[in-house]
């Protein structure tokens, strides 16, 4: 059951409500209305990236699980705070890595690997070309403090796939680069980034 | 004009002579016969990789240009000696990087880049899968001292393409790995290898 929708922008909340009218979803006037409702078990969110951790911690502390759009956070400090809150509350901080979870080919690849169809995965090479679509993006997308840079915003898809497909529990970044080659009008945008990873099981990723 | 063929194995030399009979090519009994012939302007060779530099130096010192199969050498000492010989003799030490020079798609890609069809090349990602074909390969291919390891033998194709397509004059290897995952019967074989490069013009390659 979908119970509440909340957005600081009432127009967005209302258009969401209309789209899901059949579920009976209601617009909350304040975030607390959702967090204080004991019936709510899971909160799904997609706010500005740098604010996702703080919201997630509030959600978990209110006794609910959290499902958040990728990337789930932007700094190591946020990561540490989230881990502490997960330990404290016993609640879940789940991330929607759409390029693996909502892509048929990516799900199929995972199934093939689990069946052993290609043997042991020793390397994953992931590319994540994206259109800039500047006019349709909100301003925060072009401010590093909010979106976290290209390797956080986009590269984390490929990193998550590397971990999942190779079965690595953790990995070391042995090299990474970012660049803004062609967008001087957005000085805080990275239009290129890459990273070379070595997993704790020896697998390698680029 | 093709004048001489020489191989330590007379059977190989003879089968080459037969294949190119129409050119009037003759089998040389000793390497010196070729190097001492003032009519010869270019020597093309494909001996064991670790011996290519020494042969090339002999060729250039006899006043001829050298055209050698890739990889052109296996150690930095050989590279230094070759550079010295090139300076001394003024002769050419050319390398047949077949995966760029003899591949229609690779030549076409180079043409597109030169025409500016894709703008400035900021990244080149090259993969070089090869079949092992163990039975048809000579023993030296499985001894690192002779073939130089997978990044020398195969990876140098991708490295050469990176330099050519990006126009970089030189590059730094910021990370590289080799592994033998599945061929314990050939302990000196690398069946996986990769390298991350940054060019002197900022381009990056994997």
Quick tags:
homodimer, 206 residues, alpha/beta, Dihydrodipicolinate Reductase, domain 2, 4-stranded mixed beta sheet, 3-stranded parallel beta sheet, 9 helices, 9 strands
Structure description:
2 copies of one chain form a homodimer. Chain A is globular and about 50 Å long. In chain A, α3 (52-61) packs parallel to α4. In chain A, β3, α3 and β4 form a beta-alpha-beta unit. The first copy, chain A, is α/β, with parallel strands linked by helices and 206 residues long. The first copy, chain A, folds into 2 domains: 4-98, Rossmann fold; 116-205, Dihydrodipicolinate Reductase, domain 2, CATH 3.30.360.10. Chain A has helices at 10-19, 31-35, 52-61, 76-89, 98-101, 104-114, 144-147, 150-153, 155-166; strands at 4-5, 26-27, 42-45, 65-69, 93-96, 123-124, 171-179, 192-199, 204-205. In chain A, 36% of the residues lie in helices and 18% in strands. The mean pLDDT of chain A is 96. Chain A contains 9 helices and 9 strands. Chain A starts with a strand and ends with a strand. In chain A, strands 6-9-8-7 form a 4-stranded mixed sheet. A 3-stranded parallel sheet of chain A has the order 3-4-5, covered by helices on one side. Chain A binds chain B through residues 120, 122-123, 125, 127, 174-175, 177, 179, 181, 192, 194, 196, 198, 202, 204, 206, and chain B through 120, 122-123, 125, 127, 174-175, 177, 179, 181, 192, 194, 196, 198, 202, 204, 206.
